[in-house]
Amino acid sequence: MTLDAALRALADAEARVHQLEWERTRLSLRVKDLEQQLASRAGRPAPAESAAASAALSFFGEEAAAAGGEAPTDQASLGTRRRAIAPATSPRPRGRKPLDPALPREVIPLPDPPEASRVDVFTGKPLVRGFTETLEVLARKPAVYFVKHYERTVWVSLAKTAPLATPWPASALPRSGIDASVVAHIAAAHFVEHVPYYRLEHQLARTGVALPRTTQMSLMAQLETRVAPIVEYLKREVLSSDYVHLDATPIDVCDPARPGAARSATVWAYRARSPDPARDGLVWFDYRATKSPVEPSAVLREAHYRGVVQTDGAAGLDTLGAPEHITHLGCWAHARRYVAEAVEAADARAGPYLVMIDRLFRIDARARRLSATLGRDDPRRATLVERLARWRERFSLPLMRDLFTRAATEIVTLPPKSALATALGYLLGQRAPLTRCVTTPGSSLDNNPVENAIRPLKLGARNWLFIGHPEAGPRLANLFTLLENCRQAGVEPEAYLIDLIAALADRSPHSIADWLPRAWQRRRADGIASN
Fold first, then answer.
1. Average pLDDT for 40-53
2. 514: which residues sit within 8 A by CB, 6+ positions away?
């Protein structure tokens, strides 16, 4: 056999292996789907595996993996050990889920039946008390708006010096005649539930409250002015981290120069990634009147940013900031998305690419699952980044090189406008930033964290459709920054805003850092625990 023939045979064998792997993945997904259907019909949970335990066995059992010569990404290779350590799962209780015991209860005793009917129909003797039955149902009271009527005594001097009086409560806004609770409700309804101002106006009118949309917008403008120091602090915290996820979403805005017309603006989202829990996951939104990538580049240069910036493959985002100061990473999730579209288009040649990309994600996913199970003081946490880097060098890099080689060879044989050609074109066009996703220590393979932060804003735009005036764009970005950080921290936004508005009006002695959503949540939890 000649050398060329041997190479062709080897290439055919590799293609066959990838095709078989794709078929195995497809069949395993089908089997899992059937198991879930059978479990749901039988009224019991589907078979589950202990992901955290398998991650611990595989990720910290690197020496055993190295001895085998391949990455332990095959689910079957750990099947026996998983079954041995998987906890026994008790059957899921049937019936209605109990109501939350933390909800307030209103005890309503029902009147007894009429005395004349409390007679045994067979013996004619009166019935006696037996036992008490209870029934709990979830109920709702309509929102109650009321007027807080404050009174204070003003002390004056006969010498006509300055009068003395007790200050008004910090939660009351005297000039607006509105309490902080109403402002917090409007902000949460508009920027969390994405209810347009005119719908809020109608909802309030049904309760007898006249609060025009112009007044609501004026209250939001006042709120933005008060929280501006906190938003600026969040911006500095995000841009002072050494790893930023960046993405943009277009927003329609009314054009004053063309009445009745709208133009496209952009809200850029910056999300910090940091080993510091206080900084990790902080989000900052920046409104810009254009879609040009020059805008975020200027922001990064102005902040003297140095570190990693991760984006998708949009044009111009690979030249952000000063090149000698910024490491640009791509997004494997976008690459996978295009390949998945080719698979959905019934192109069998796309299957092996999807299998190879999924392998890259599985290696990193085990590290993330294990990290979630470890405490902050666990000594193994310090070795996660180092071990993941070694795993990537040993397993991910060869797999990625094979993926790019296969794509470069096959793309020349595809119709230019086919789904697979588009997917491979994106993959090869983003080869450098995608490679840096694997070679940069502690990096993420995708840009999904910031896309998840943008999603509520994009879904909300389906309700309010556009920004009414360009000057309202920064207000949208600033207030959404504050409330999206509440969502990221799991903070109830109305309770947080009520405390924040009162503290800002009262010039609370706490520092700005103490009024970030996570810090407020910890301080509130400590106060509840101490009480």
1. 50
2. 520, 523
